[in-house]
Each structure stands twice: as structure tokens, then as C-alpha cells.
Specification:
Blueprint lengths: L4 E7 L3 E8 L4 E8 L3 E4 L2 E4 L1 H17 L7 E8 L5 E3 L9 E2 L7 H11 L1 H8 L8 H11 L1 H6 L2 E3 L1 H10 L4 E2 L9 E2 L4 E2 L1 H7 L9 E2 L4 E4 L2 H7 L6 E3 L2 E2 H8 L8 E5 L3 E7 L9 E4 L6 E7 L3 H11 L1 H10 L3 H10 L9 E3 L17 E3 L7 H24 L7 E5 L6 H11 L2 E5 L4 H14 L5 H8 L2 E5 L3 H32 L2
Parallel strand pairs: 1-6, 6-16, 10-13, 17-23, 23-24
Antiparallel strand pairs: 1-2, 2-3, 4-5, 5-8, 7-9, 11-12, 14-15, 17-18, 18-20, 19-20, 21-22, 24-25
């Protein structure tokens, strides 16, 4: 057998998804492995990088047991979660747990950055607001609170670059994850030494920059023994999960947009110049010389997952009886409730909120609960709350001239026809749904394919592998109903903003 498959590894927030694709984008084997998340304190959200590696090794063993031969893997691509702060030593060994994108302990350091360097200046340079979720404040937090670890750090890696190192023994930093650092010049694609120096950060801590499809190295003998991969298999730099997911959704041209339905929510609009909005996220696409103007929210599929885990026992039991996912049961229940959930609204700020409000202290809220509200009302209101947060980001993007006509939706939420239609009705946008269960892994695999020449360019890669399965068009009468609820959704945060701060202070007592 020759080299006929590409391996995509998606290091996600809640699990690692691995999939083997043929060159036409068909999944021939897949595995999902979970790992724990640790919450050692208020605002602290961590994972263990070695547990990522263990999940990958176990997953590959399972994949190879399913009949895939290691020598059939032509190349490997890895994507990973954003803003993961991981200090490693010279041998690439983690010095501490990974501070995830959900980690918001570095409020004080973010405030120092604003006061010391000026937020407007940092936004103009990095294209991103100053917020504790980003890597820069976390580095400063380590410098202040764990100086012994910071001093031992040889490099700071992200989720995908750590796995690339474990496979190849090479340190790397690819462009799509550069936006996590406020001393990364988002317009020129390079580090800004002066800004880093003013923060007290040495650029020696940064790994060499690579394009996302560039081959960083090949699988070492040691990694081959641990993973089952063949020594010498090429490994590309990979990229941000949202950017790889965007590629896997078929977004390769300016103006195209991906709607994210994974653990987090939001959208990514491909642009051919760096459009900077102080309330949005700007990063490089995994395609060279292209950017993604992103709205990233904490309340995506994770909001419904929280509901299912904490309040969805009935749906879990019914799902087992009917051989359905509990999320499909919830979708069916939500379908029986009118738009607006009969006056029940949900603010999906379950771990603070990112764009466009950037408030670490914001929290989830059900507004409008009454005796006539059922669990179905609550489920639909969660879905609608995520839809309102998406619309809020789309409206914000319009302020800098980014106009969206339609979106390609991927992630677990896209499997729900009900939820996807709700988003179409709320936003007034046509939503196309390609096969989405492995969109991020597919994007990572396509990077590997372009990197070794399986595809001549990204357009060919997408044309051969991405297929639209269904399309949702807005119901304009429902859209009209949702407009009033959306305005109330916006006003609720403004009215509760100070109360969120009070609640946070009370929790510190």
C-alpha cells in the first residue's frame, strides 16, 4: 500500500479528535479521547499537556487497530485551542499545567498592560484587545506569581506546537496562533521586539515562525515508538483550531465566513487585509497572507453541554431509550417552543465573556423564568442566547466594513437542524452546513496535504474535500420576532454589568 491518507489531530478544549482522511476528504477512521480539566481556583482553568499526548497515543493505537496501516499515513497536521500558555524547558518538558483560553486569572496583569503601554497602541499592533484570556497577560502572571517556573522556561508553546514538538523534536510557532501575543505585529507577521522588551519579555522565549502548512520536521524514532506512526512521516506546523475549522468548512476566499458551533461559539470572516476592531479578535488564517476577523464567545455548544450535564438527566435517559443523542432529544423539545421561548432569555456567559463585551466577571443568566416555563423553554432559550451572541459579533464586525451574506456552520451544534435554523432566523443569514463532525481535523489534514503537495493549493484542497450537506434560509417572520428579544438581550448585560462585578467581589470573601 502507498501513502494514501492524511492524519488530522484536533486538540480541543474538552477532547482530542483524531481522524484519518483519504485525499477526497472521506473519514476512514476516527477516535475521540478525553482528558480532564482542572479548576484550582476562581478564574483558573488548566489542563495537563502530557495528558493531551497520552490521549493522542491511545487514539492512534485505536485507529491502527481498526485496520489503518501506519505506513499509509502520508503526513500529519495538528490544530489546537487558542491562547494556551505552556512554558517548557529545553527538552520540551512542560514546567506547569497549561493555562487554557478559559483561564481568566490574569486580570491584574491585563490592567497593567493597559496602563503601562496603552490599550490603543497594543490593539493597533496586535489587532486584539487586552484581555486576561490572551497569552501575554498569562505570561506576566507566571512572571509575577511563579517566577521559578518562568525563569526555567526555554520556550512558550501552544497546544498544537507542543504536539508538533512531541512528534518531531522541533520547536515551532505558526502564524495563526500569533494573535495570542500582544507583541506580535498582526499586519506584518513578525514579533515586535520593542513592545516585548517594555513588558519585560524576551523574544528568546518564542519559537521560530512557520506558515501553517510548512513541514516542521518528521516523526522521530521515539515518537514512532509511542504513537505507532512511521519514523520520517512529515508533520506540518498546523494551526489554531478555529482557523483549521474554518478551512475545513470550506472558507478559502475573502468574504466567506465560518460559524463556529463547538465548545465555544462565534464566527470567523476571511479578509485579505488586517481589519482591526477593538472589540473583536483578529488573527492570521491558516492560508498565507489572509486574516480572520473573529468573534469568539465562551457560550457555544458548551452552554448546551453544561445544561445537559447538570439538568438534562431526562434527555439522557430518553436518548438511551430511543438510541438518540441527548442533544437530539433536546433539539426535538426545543422545536416545540415558539421563537423567543415565550419570554425566556439566556445570557450565555458561563465563564465570563469574550467578544464583543470582554468581561471576565459576566455570568450566565436565565431571565423571565415563571411557572409556565418548562425544561424545553430553557433548552430553546440557551440555543437562542448563543444565537444572540453570534448576531452581536456579526453586528460588531459590520462596523469595520466586514459584511457577511452567508455562513458555513461547523462543530457539534451544526448537527442540530433546529439550532442551526434558530441561528439563521436570529441573524437573518443563510447558513450552509458541510459535513461538520471533523471539520477542524479535516482542516489540519488539508494543511498537511498542501504542505507535502497532495493538493496544489488550498482552493483545490477544499474543492476536492468539502461538500455542503444542507442549507438553512431565514424565516423572516421569526427574524422580526427575534429582533425585539435581541434588543432586550443587549440591554440585559448593560443593566447587569455592575451586578456581575458585585457578585465577583462577594465570591472573594
Amino acid at each position: 500500500m502507498g501513502k494514501r491518507f492524511l492524519l488530522g489531530v484536533d486538540v480541543g478544549t474538552s477532547a482530542c479528535k483524531m481522524a484519518v482522511f483519504d485525499f477526497e476528504g472521506k473519514v476512514v477512521a476516527a477516535h475521540t479521547g478525553t482528558y480532564p480539566t482542572y479548576y484550582p481556583g476562581i478564574g483558573c482553568v488548566e489542563q495537563d499537556a502530557d495528558e493531551w499526548w497520552q490521549a493522542i497515543c491511545q487514539g492512534l493505537a485505536d485507529i491502527f487497530q481498526k485496520g489503518i496501516l501506519p505506513e499509509e499515513i502520508a503526513a500529519v497536521g495538528i490544530d489546537g485551542t487558542s491562547w494556551a500558555c505552556l512554558p517548557v524547558d529545553r527538552e520540551g518538558r512542560p514546567l506547569d499545567r497549561v493555562m487554557l483560553w478559559l483561564d481568566r486569572r490574569a486580570d491584574k496583569e491585563a490592567l497593567w498592560m493597559k496602563e503601562r503601554l496603552g490599550e490603543e497602541r497594543l490593539i493597533a499592533l496586535s489587532g486584539n484587545p487586552v484581555d486576561p484570556a490572551y497569552i501575554t497577560p498569562k505570561m506576566l502572571w507566571l512572571m509575577e506569581n511563579k517566577p521559578e517556573i518562568y525563569k526555567k522556561a526555554y520556550k512558550f508553546l501552544q497546544s498544537n506546537s507542543y504536539i508538533v514538538y512531541r512528534l518531531t523534536g522541533e520547536f515551532s510557532q505558526e502564524y495563526s496562533q500569533g494573535y495570542g501575543f500582544h507583541f506580535f505585529d498582526i499586519s506584518r507577521g513578525c514579533w515586535d521586539e520593542k513592545t516585548a522588551e517594555e513588558m519585560g519579555i524576551s523574544l528568546d522565549l518564542m519559537a521560530p515562525l512557520y506558515h501553517c502548512h510548512e513541514v516542521v520536521g518528521t516523526v522521530t524514532q521515539k515518537a514512532a515508538r509511542e504513537t505507532g506512526l512511521v519514523p520520517g512521516t512529515p508533520v506540518v506546523a498546523g494551526g489554531l483550531d478555529a482557523a483549521c475549522c474554518t478551512l475545513g468548512a470550506g472558507v478559502v476566499k475573502p468574504g466567506q465566513t465560518q460559524e463556529q458551533g463547538g465548545q465555544s461559539g462565534g464566527m470567523g470572516i476571511q479578509v485579505d487585509r488586517p481589519l482591526i476592531h477593538p472589540k473583536l479578535i483578529l488573527g492570521y488564517h491558516v492560508i498565507p497572507d489572509q486574516w480572520l476577523l473573529q468573534g469568539g464567545t465562551v457560550g457555544g455548544g458548551g452552554a448546551l453541554r453544561w445544561f445537559c450535564e447538570q439538568l438534562g438527566t431526562f434527555e439522557q435517559i430518553k436518548g438511551r431509550e430511543l438510541d438518540l443523542s441527548p442533544y437530539e432529544v433536546m433539539s426535538q423539545e426545543a422545536a416545540g417552543v415558539r421563537p423567543g421561548s415565550d419570554g425566556l432569555l439566556f445570557l450565555p456567559y458561563l465563564a465570563g465573556e469574550r467578544s464583543p463585551i470582554w468581561d471576565s466577571k459576566a455570568r450566565g443568566v436565565f431571565f423571565g423564568l415563571s411557572y409556565d416555563k418548562s425544561r424545553a423553554h430553557m433548552i430553546r432559550s440557551v440555543m437562542e442566547g448563543v444565537g444572540y451572541s453570534l448576531l452581536h459579533n456579526l453586528h460588531t464586525a459590520e462596523e469595520v466594513g466586514a459584511v457577511v451574506e452567508s455562513m458555513n456552520s461547523v462543530g457539534g451544534s451544526a448537527n442540530s437542524k433546529v439550532w442551526t435554523q434558530i441561528k439563521a432566523d436570529i441573524t437573518g443569514k443563510v447558513i450552509h452546513v458541510p459535513y461538520s463532525d471533523h471539520a477542524a481535523s479535516l482542516g489540519a489534514a488539508l494543511l498537511a496535504g498542501v504542505g507535502i503537495g497532495v493538493y496544489k493549493d488550498f482552493e483545490e484542497a477544499v474543492a476536492r474535500t468539502v461538500r455542503i450537506e444542507r442549507t438553512h434560509t431565514p424565516d423572516w417572520e421569526k427574524h422580526r420576532i427575534y429582533q425585539g428579544y435581541y434588543e432586550l438581550y443587549l440591554s440585559l448585560y448593560e443593566r447587569l454589568k455592575d451586578s456581575f462585578g458585585t457578585l465577583y467581589r462577594l465570591q472573594q470573601i
